[in-house]
Amino acid sequence: MKNKNFNLQYLRKTCFISRYKYGNDIVDLGEYILSYATSCNLGCEYCYLNFVKTPSKPVLYENKDFLFKEIEEFIETQNEKYFYLNCGETADSLLTIEHTLLAEGIIDFLSTMAGEYNKNVTIEIRTKTNNVEKMINVGNKNVKVVFATSLIPENIRKTVEPLVSCVDERIENLIKAIDKGMLLGLRFEPIIIRNLDNRNTEIVIKEMMSEYEELIRKTSDLISDNKDKIHTISLSLLRFTKKQFKQLVDRKSNIVWPEMVLCPDGKYRYSRPIRIEIYKNLVELLKKYFGNSIVNKIYLAIEFDYIWKACGLEIRRITDFW
Ligand code: SF4
Questions:
Q1: Full-prediction pTM beyond 0.90?
Q2: 201 CA to centre of ligand 1 in angstroms
Q3: Atom 8 (ligand 1) nearest CA
Q4: What average pLDDT does range 21-26 have in this prediction?
Q5: Angstrom distances, CA of residue 15 to CA of 61, 105, 294
Q6: Shortest-distance Cα residue to atom 6 of ligand 1
Q7: Are 230 and 183 in contact (CB under 8 A)?
Q8: What is the C-alpha separation between 114 and 81, in angstroms, rounded?
Q9: Is 150 in contact with 187 (CB distance < 8 Å)?
Q10: Which pLDDT belongs to residue 5?
Q11: Chain mean pLDDT for the chain
Q12: List of domains in the chain
């Protein structure tokens, strides 16, 4: 069976579920990746999928019997009592209606397995599409479903993610997800410092913070009656693999700063003081609009423990947010 937008004729030959590999010295959040699809045609400029070998058309794996068998074996045999399965690492979780239907099938099956084996399972559906409106209500399931979406200021989105839903739509999707019985994962990722254009870094960061303040205020206003539905809030500044960094520098991309530093995990990031300053400012903005207790929901994605500590955040695994 063929569809012009994606390819179904692929059999996954490796495991569908794997431990997330965090890299040297990065805080291990304990997530598992569930890859029922791979590749994405939404073309976000920073997406690592553009820089690794993936099929040219998005793929939804056909060997679903193996997928469900593996899920059952995984839930049955792992010693842990709590699991967090992230479905947004190798593709947008709800890229097409077929992805959405498969995600629903997985939620349903996980719900049965969680009950059968007495396990606490959280599944994260991460998307920049509007397909949450097509999903069934999952409120009666025996698993927690986290609807996660990336939030970045709209004028940055227009330049780096022109093909995906605008930020206002994504905020509205948060409400739709709540109505469908999901919890929310507010993902302030990737946090991008705009090209300096010969301007002072301090001024550029100040401008950026006022854009984030507007974004956080808007999000807080829209979900004001449902703040208890927030599962987690992640903050993550832009980072690149060596290959991404080189290619983006070569093509003079606006999103890359040549003075980014190579970190022990082999990724390029903004310098340590800049990262700490931005994370601390964002934590303060989140406390201002969501209340001080929101700090208990915040984690840094793919960061070093000294950065968490410098920002006053307690180091936790994602399953600790259950
Ligand atoms: S939507 Fe997600 S997976 Fe797709 S290109 Fe953008 S960042 Fe990559």
A1: yes
A2: 28
A3: 47
A4: 96
A5: 12, 18, 36
A6: 44
A7: yes
A8: 10
A9: yes
A10: 63
A11: 94
A12: 17-321 (3.80.30.30)
Is the pLDDT assigned to residue 9 strictly greater than 70? no
Q: How far is the CA of 226 from the centre of ligand 1 (A)?
A: 27
CA of 188 to the centre of ligand 1 (A): 14
Do the beta carbons of residue 145 and residue 107 sit within 8 Å?
yes
**What's phi and psi for 216, nearest 5 deg?**
-70, -40
Residue 3 pLDDT > 50: no
Enumerate the H helices of the chain as residue ranges: 64-77, 97-117, 154-160, 167-179, 201-222, 242-250, 272-290, 305-310
Of 12 and 203, the structure prediction assigns the larger pLDDT to: 203
What is the rounded distance in angstroms from the CA atom of residue 238 to the CA atom of residue 26? 15
Taking CA atoms, 223 is separated from 120, 171, 176, in Å, by 26, 8, 11
Single-letter residue type at 100: T
pLDDT in tens, 96-120: 999 999 999 999 999 999 999 999 9
- pLDDT for res 149: 98
How many Å apart are CA 37 and CA 248, to the nearest integer? Answer: 26
